[in-house]
């Protein structure tokens, strides 16, 4: 019986100790668990934050795919929201076309994103994504604009662009902040005035005719067929550089003959900001700002798009997708049928729309004939056979409408077709003569594109100078004709041609992301 | 009552001393363990706070870098000068390291062009940052250069910070490769 009270007293002490120790251990466990829980919570929350961005971008990619596949750039007044999910979360994408309607609830928030995008030429997508659950849930909101790719890389502007030669004659002018770029020789005839710069990546520049003026720079990479000079210049307000393509040894210029790279200056004329040439300077004495027998690398030559260096010039690609046009294009399988059905009609009935003609036997004897056509709005002609025209007019275009005229010919002339110049249409992919009777205020923006052949533009229409506002792009013939323009033709580069559906500097894609921004999640 | 009184006689002095000694040892051991745990928890909390700070800094930085439209080619490993969007408007932002402070500066709109000095007032967004080499620029072959190429498309942001001395040795490093979505 003595042991019972003893056990009771022992039990009391032990209980106190056990309680104290339990409290301490409990505290330790609680602290540890709390620390772990905090770390886990934070880690999971951050993981969801990161994950939700990927989910939002997945939503954008799905929406781009949907737009490309289903609508192209066709007018889409309403666009159903897109909901979807990935393994990490869910997304909700709302899309607005640019520019949005004033009645569109997203107008205010989206209008600043649509600057520079004309009707049917862009979209703005809002993608909101959520990853995680309950208190660990994180939501992010990104806004992405989808725009047409630019015609030339890095937003460069070329009024005339040719993989072969360029020939301007008889008081032509190229105006505005746009340049001329060719792989082959550039010939500038009497009285021609260029407000931009001239580059021949592999050829010579001949502007030795009377009263020619280049307000920008002149840069050559080759020499004339006689091997006597690289540039023959009259007046250049910028600098002139006669270079050698891709020299490795800048001391010897890889053994290139200096005599090939002479620069000839007209008497009493000159190059305001100095001449640099691997050859010598003739017709004038070298000044302090001139550098003779100095080796420099020529400008990069035009290559197929996309170029290895994103800033290099490249020949734009054109991809036809009938979903890109609204109303749908008229597709015809014969140039003869097209000419019979629309040729005469369009001369008396102002016409608008997109015409696609793929002829089984494309040839100079079987061309698309747009002679006398009258435009009433946007006009696009896409074909694999040559395009000829003796006069196109936009006088019937309603006031306030600023249409585009897009001529695309993929015709690749053969040697049997003959030459292409302003007097010889047979070797041309596009040949325009006797008036491009477009309104002189540049209401109509024109893009003439022949990726496999030359283009010639001849004669104005009486007293109308036939101003061409836009750009002429020619793949030309290797080492041969590219672009020829004759007789007092004023050419103005027009920025509207930098965003024509189907063209791109980045390969065959209709759209690319223009602006990406993360906004606060609402 | 008799038994109760009798029970008070149950422990000898030695028994009490041994019991007290054992109790003291147990309690001191437990308290010591609690103290160590508390210190460790404090250290862990400090590291956690630093990690949170770094995470917030890197998130803020990567958000603006991700939507940058251009990177100034004069940027270095300790200074990143970008044109980006802040609250929907084009803005120029400079991140740099001063001492052990990681800072950001919103340049006045008049100084948007890279040719202008940034101006503006720097704000600290992370402290105890070391080393100061926070940025590098991912090149075409996957390496990371100390200065940006002409058209930098990816920037690596690496923030390292050491908690206070009591938190124990070792720094915390967070790194993020950011693809510039608006540089095409």
Q: From N to C, what is the helix and strand string of chain B? A: HHEEEEEEEEE
Shape of chain A: globular
Residue stretches of chain B low in confidence (pLDDT < 50, at least 5 long) are none
Structural class of chain B: alpha+beta
Q: If helices are DSSP runs of H or I spanning 4 or more residues, what is the number of helices of chain B?
A: 2
Main beta sheet of chain A: 16 strands, parallel, barrel
Profile the largest sheet of chain B.
5 strands, antiparallel
Show unreliable segments of chain A: none
The oligomeric state of the chains shown is: heterodimer
Portion of residues within helices of chain B: 25-40%
What's the number of structural domains of chain A?
Answer: 3
C-alpha Rg of chain B, in Å?
A: 29 Å
State the end-to-end distance of chain A: 77 Å
- Share of residues in strands of chain B: 25-35%
Mean pLDDT rating of chain B = 86
**How many β-strands of chain B, per DSSP?**
9
Question: What pair of chains forms the biggest interface?
Answer: A-B, 34 and 33 residues
The secondary-structure class of chain A comes to alpha/beta
Write out the strand line-up for the largest beta sheet of chain B, numbering strands in chain order. Answer: 1-2-3-4-5
- What is the overall pLDDT average of chain A? 85
